[in-house]
Design brief:
This protein is α+β, with helices and mostly antiparallel strands. The chain has two domains: 82 residues, lambda repressor-like DNA-binding domains (434 Repressor (Amino-terminal Domain)), CATH 1.10.260.40; 168 residues, Beta-Lactamase. 42% of the residues lie in helices and 14% in strands. It contains twelve helices and six strands. Strand 5 and strand 6 form a beta hairpin. 29% of the residues are buried.
Length: 282
């Protein structure tokens, strides 16, 4: 009998150790008989069908790396568990070769506990990989259902698609993004997606090509930004970019001074979420 770990069994075990409150689901321990999360709950959180997750847990399906990442985020896997899941699924672990997109449990807890603050996690190349609901309500950005490039801030910025956020020093902002991408390309030379992104931007954006050729060096700093929300109007927020020790990710946090008009608008958005506040006609 083989003693080698089995991905299907591990997925069932990892699902069983989580409680609904661990992932923000509104169910208490006395409202269900299932130990851990239900299969339907994990499927919904990971963006896959319950039937597909069942086949994975029965060893009848082979998950792509994208699916492994989504399940790792949902199941709150540690770095070691994520690397094990990658190996068992037949994928090389990302560390040291490509830009990591795994979020560890500590960063996940940060997202869960700061539900009243717009917060998002980007990888080192500025691709959005996770956010809380208030971030989506404020910015309109949602990583779910987007490919890696269209969820990338550098790509969108130099394609004139910056969404609702206005930057006070746009040229400095663009220069810092290019400098970040240059550093990432040096750190992860084997990441083909990063190389393809740089090549596509150099061809399609004269501004990016100019900044790339100039070898511009710039740094991010805390600053105030304006978000043009379609329902509540302008919201001035302070933007801070944080890092997590041992994880090559960027955590972007928007805050407003207590008692300010912006704080009240954020409170309103935290209540209504992504629903439209336009009154019905007729």
């Amino acid at each position: 009998m083989s003693e080698a770990p089995d991905l299907a069994a591990l997925l069932r075990s990892w699902r069983g150790r989580l409680q609904p409150t661990d992932v923000g689901l509104p169910f208490g321990p006395g409202t269900r008989r299932t130990a851990g999360l239900r299969r339907e709950e994990v499927a919904w959180l990971a963006g896959v069908s319950p039937d597909y997750l069942q086949r994975l847990e029965q060893g009848r399906a082979h998950p792509s790396l994208v699916i492994v990442r989504a399940l790792a985020r949902t199941l709150r896997l540690s770095d070691a568990e994520y690397e094990l899941a990658c190996r068992l699924a037949g994928h090389a672990a990302e560390s040291g070769t490509t830009v990591p997109q795994h979020i560890g449990p500590s960063v996940r807890r940060l997202l869960d506990r700061l539900a009243g603050t717009p917060i998002a996690v980007f990888d080192a190349a500025w691709t959005l990989i996770e956010h809380n609901e208030l971030w989506a309500a404020l910015t309109g950005d949602d990583w779910r259902g987007h490919d890696r490039r269209s969820a990338n801030i550098v790509w969108r910025t130099f394609r004139d698609d910056e969404g609702r956020v206005r930057h006070p020093r746009i040229e400095e902002h663009r220069a810092s993004l290019v400098a970040d991408l240059r550093t990432v390309a040096t750190r992860y030379p084997a990441d083909r997606e990063v190389g393809d992104l740089i090549g596509a931007l150099r061809k399609s954006s004269p501004d990016f090509a100019r900044l790339w050729a100039d070898s511009t060096v710039a740094h991010h700093r805390s600053e105030r930004k304006t978000v043009d929300h379609p329902d509540v109007g302008e919201i001035e927020v302070d933007c801070d970019v944080l890092t997590a020790h041992g994880a090559d990710v960027r955590i972007v946090v928007y805050t407003a001074a207590p008692g300010s008009e912006a704080a009240e608008k954020l409170r309103l958005l935290s209540v209504v979420g992504t629903e439209t506040m336009t009154p019905p006609t007729g």
